[in-house]
Every structure is written in structure tokens, then in C-alpha cells.
Design brief:
Blueprint: H1 18-30, E1 37-38, H2 55-60, E2 65-67, H3 72-82, E3 86-88, H4 92-95, H5 102-113, E4 118-119, E5 130-133, E6 136-145, H6 146-151, E7 165-171, H7 175-187, E8 196-203, H8 220-228, E9 235-242, E10 250-252, E11 255-259, E12 264-267
Parallel strand pairs: 1-2, 2-3, 6-7, 7-8, 8-9
Antiparallel strand pairs: 3-10, 4-12, 5-9, 6-11, 11-12
Length: 276
Amino acid sequence: MKLSEGAWEREDYVAGPAEVRARDIVAMFADPEVDLVQCSTGGYGAAHVLPLLDYDVIRANPKPFVGYSDITALHTAIRTETGLATFYGPNLMSMGDVDRTAWDKDLLVKTFQGDGTGEIPHDPDDPYVRAIVGGRVTAPLVGGCLWLLQHSLRTPWEFSAQGCILFFEDVDLPPYMVDGLLWHLHQVGTLRGVAGVVIGDMEKCDWREERPDNPRTRSLEDVLEERLEPLGVPVLYKLPLGHGRHLATLPLGVTATLDADAGTLTIDEPALRPGT
């Protein structure tokens, strides 16, 4: 394992100056000794580096790029600028989290020992999934953390879901905030032409005793029904993708098949190029 030069940098609530973080990302892609670039953690601030990255270097040195949560900003920008597939999966610090299990780590390793194709498994502790809208579709898969996807709007790296299967997840957003984000995406036209929707683990997004500030609330699933059913496309809820106890590694930017009736999401296209 190789740490970037600025791995220990810190500047208040971000992991060092944006210039240092951008330099480190590009250096990791350019380094022939590095086979996989894995972000250390999420949090906040990834978007700061987007205008500073050398996307030509990243494009010329394709290799797996892994991270989740705030790293959504980087997934979106790298796909927009280079066309490369990336992986929504555990950050480096997640690998040592006591709440993470061997299930997550084994899936991450298995993904990179193969080509990234195959069905995304259900949660081993709670296999509940629900088709909010039935149907089957094959299309490119895009997405990430809902909050970060919304932040990309009207930037040079605005995500597009037109003709794609949109994946999203989030954490600690009460139903009214999820409603607001989805309503905004609908109003600005981002959901127009979406081919399907996959919702991951919306951890701590329903009402709970630890956060009793909104006792008069709809359930999260009520919100998802109201905002997503009118799209008229397959919608599947609650695969282990996100901030919950389990996080499967999900390739983004590749062709996938969503079968909401069967409760499955299958990656059809290899995410790893030969030699990467």
C-alpha cells in the first residue's frame, strides 16, 4: 500500500488544501506502482479539487478508482471528463471500521479479481428489497450519494441520468429532505428520460427516537413512491449500497440490468479494461 504525500494534511474540516489533494489524486493515477486508487474517507470537500485535476493524466492512466459518499463528486467528474468507469465502494478507513464485516471486504477484493460483472448481492443480514415500480431495463448505471448528486447541478460536472439507470443512497436525511432533493431533481428536469432507479441503503433516513424532531412525517418509502412512481420506469429499493452496515462494491459508468420484479441489479459490462 502506498499513501499519498498529503495523506496526513488537514485544514479545518477538509483533508488539506485542494491543490494538495488534487496533486495527490493525479499522482496516484500517474504512478506505475499503483494498481488501484482508493480514497481514504468521505466527509466533505471532494468537489473543491474538481477544477484542479489533470483529467488528461487520469484518462491516459486508467485504473480502478474507489470511494463512496462525498467521493460521489469525483466519480461524476471523472466519468464526465474521461469516460472511465469508477467504483462506488468502501473507502480505506471503512476497511478498518469495526462495523464493517468481511462480507464488504471480500466483495471488494472479488470485484477486482474478476471484471466487475455479476449480480449485486442482497444484504446478508436483511435481504429485504422492494420493487416500488416493476419492470426490467438495461442501460448505463450512474449515480452516488443523493446530496452530492444534487450539488453537481449547474456545474461543469453536472451528472446526467438521461437514458441511464440512476443509483442513489444517503444517510441521516429525514424524509422531508429526501423529498426536497428528489423534488428539485424533478423540477430542473434531471429525472426526465431516466431509464430506471436503484435506491441503496438510506441509512437513518426514516423517523427514529434518536431524532424525534419531525414526529409528523411520511415514511421514507412513502416519499420514494410519491416522487419516483410517476417516472413510469423500474424502481428498486434497498440494495446494500451506501452508509449502512454493509456496502457492496458497485461499478459506475457501465451497462447494467435492473430487474425490479426479480429484485436484482446485474452488472453486464466489464468495468475493468484489460491490463488495469
